[in-house]
Amino acid sequence: MRDLHAPRGAVAGAAATIRPATAADQPRLAALVRSIENFTPAEVACALELIAAAAGSPPGCDDYRVLIAERSPAEPLLGYACYGPTPMTRSTFDLYWIASSPAARGTGIGLRLHEAVVAAVRAAGGRRLRVETSTQESYGATLRFYERCGYREAGRIADFYADGDDLLTLVCPVGP
Ligand SMILES: CC(C)(COP(=O)(O)OP(=O)(O)OC[C@H]1O[C@@H](n2cnc3c(N)ncnc32)[C@H](O)[C@@H]1OP(=O)(O)O)[C@@H](O)C(=O)NCCC(=O)NCCS
After folding, report:
1. Which residues line ligand 1 (CB under 6 A)?
2. Shortest CA distance to 108 belongs to which of 149, 147, 67, 74?
3. What is the pTM of this model?
């Protein structure tokens, strides 16, 4: 990944509103996901699928949950996170996707979104968040971001995605 850690102050992450996404946010979410430079077409399709699943879930069935960061409803989104309870576990949640808009990088949006995910997971009785990623994708900035959020490596399968590209499992404790 290119180093897109912009100097702080370009967009004030601290001034952003973080809230659960609604159906009305779908077009801005789609635009945001398509603007993430390091998402492959397959990743964009998968991210959009989970966003649609979150929006279309019947009440009481919230396997996928989406939080957004915005300055105002009239402006493009600053970032989003998609997470949900890990099937067949009691208190583990997956962080499926987290991204801030390229223009908002390095202003604290990612951190604020992650804090909101942690708070929501804790409120739902969750004890840990899991991220599964490839070593290639996690190289550099993304891994530093996860480390800053409190993730530590909990497992690795060598050559899982391709030769030299391992599956990395990261875990962040969120319990009391
Ligand atoms: C990873 C990502 C979400 C970080 O979002 P962000 O809004 O730029 O992050 P923040 O400004 O909140 O930075 C939080 C911390 O992460 C670390 N960090 C983030 N980007 C970094 C970079 N490019 N280089 C080094 N550290 C970085 C820093 O420790 C930073 O804290 P600090 O500024 O106090 O040192 C963002 O770069 C992104 O959207 N990347 C593309 C999508 C992606 O790869 N998502 C992850 C897989 S789904």
Report:
1. 3-5, 36, 38, 97-100, 105-111, 141-142, 144-145, 148
2. 149
3. 0.92
